Amino acid sequence: MMRASRARTTPKARPAYDLMRSGARIERRDIGRRGALEQPSATYVAHEGCDHIFFVGFLGVGKSTLARNLGQLFNRHYVDTDQLVERSLGKTVAEVFSEDGEDFFRDVETVQLGHLRVRKSLLVSCGGGIIEREENCDLMHDMGVVVFLDGDLVDSLRQIRRPEKRPDLGTAAHAEELYCHRRPLYEGTADITIDVRNRTFEQVALESGKLLWERGLL
After folding, report:
1. pLDDT tens digits for range 70-99
2. Domains defined for the chain, CATH in brackets
3. Which residues 6+ apart lie within 8 Å of 12 measured at CB?
């Protein structure tokens, strides 16, 4: 599923896309370290306005890994909304859920999302529940384009290495219920949908980078 998006400024050179076409290997690394998803680049490419790309999808689908690797390939800053919340509160997501509750977490998530208005051309890995609030969806559309990584629940659960860090996941039955609840919300929010089923991470990164580049978003 794709929707028309606003026009973007397309870079003149294509070094990152040429690198991807050459078959250079893209590594999937551990992304659990705090602060690992926001790194400056000496050749950072800024576009007009906010012009962010927001990656949404279920837990474990690969949003953070894709945002990080596309950021490295295309010289774009990348951030993770869960990590922004953790830094602002000095607590892990699991601690916030346990001590303050999910509603409080969602409040802070919305505040941190709004703070991205003052920045440009970010690749944003969004927490799985960010689409639970219509306000967040409106904010993302105001600031850029929403990309939904659409995958199967079984594949997502297999990628989650530390489920205790995912307090909204719960039991297998609850995870399935949550997936069925959120999937239509992802679909309804997305400007672009990328099917990640039966694809290696390298294939997802290559196809995503090609699509976003050709649409003038990278």
Report:
1. 998 899 999 999 999 999 999 999 999 999
2. 55-213 (3.40.50.300)
3. none
